């Protein structure tokens, strides 16, 4: 286990908190129904700093001249481990995860007042979880009640998660390694779906091809609910039912990505169900592909987060004019947002532990400047819902093309690889 990367992230946070103390609980287990739980997923911020996978864990970073990291976690329990599986226990966790001290989670409430006392500031995110808010507040009050004994409670509260989110915006090499692996597995999943696609299959059969590739390759599973949308279903941005039949002559849009070590890939491909684009489908497809190329060309360190969106919109608007859907001058149409009925989302988002990853998009009131190590998606689309404003041959065509991009020292690395040119898709899908 690479504990160095996590220790380095904690050091970066210690630099920010100074003499303060930070408290970060992981996610809770969630009941699905009766005795069944949703598959457990740790809290992303907690995982980023600890790599510790179990529920009921809390990280406490005690700042000062000799900073120390404390983990509270479940105790070893032979009976519970028989039912639910292995637990590290405090001693095991200390050894494996490189924290300075570890205690049973049941001791958190009694130990916290002493830990808080004497620190000028507390770093904790109020409002994230009411249960934790109450426990931390109770500990603060316990210190305040000991004022006559000379104890001092923190007087300043900082939003801890906002600080961690800021760190998470630039990925380290360990993170980039996980993201490249997630991207490789996801790319293979999209290839498999293209190869197995046939008219008459249900959408969920392609979802199953992706799930198969993800799990057989060692990914944890899907990083977000996959979209497999045939025909006009592709114009519904968050379509997830995946239960319709894939029709001959239509397109299918797949937006799916796996999760590796907590990190997401996020790829969209749109391709013909029968393996051959019609000329109308190809016309729209080439516009979206050109918009994506223009957006990617705008990505480099120092560029603004919005530059690639603006580049994509310009190509999409010119395309909408060429298709006869919009009329007028390009700048005027962009100014009036005339494209928004057909392109209603932004061209990308940060990517990392969360598919829509942590991190501000504006610093002060300026769009964020791209830096080496940032990762974002580039995902332009056109959604031509079946309505009278659209030429008949184009009605119901929905296309998005999405790749994942790492900003490098001198440009951008598109590290997702599933085929996306018309020629490459048709060659891959040829069934001779
Ligand atoms: N898969 C979610 C997105 O593309 O934003
Ligand atoms: Mn995306
Ligand atoms: Mn996506």
TrEMBL record:
Residues 1-133 form the Aminopeptidase P N-terminal domain. It is an enzyme of class 3 (hydrolase). InterPro entries: Aminopep_P_N, Creatin/AminoP/Spt16_N, Creatinase/aminopeptidase-like, Pept_M24, Peptidase_M24B_aminopep-P_CS, X-Pro_dipept-like. It catalyses: Release of any N-terminal amino acid, including proline, that is linked to proline, even from a dipeptide or tripeptide. Pfam families: AMP_N, Peptidase_M24. Keywords: Aminopeptidase, Hydrolase, Manganese, Metal-binding, Metalloprotease, Protease. Belongs to the peptidase M24B family. This is Xaa-Pro aminopeptidase. It comes from Propionivibrio dicarboxylicus.
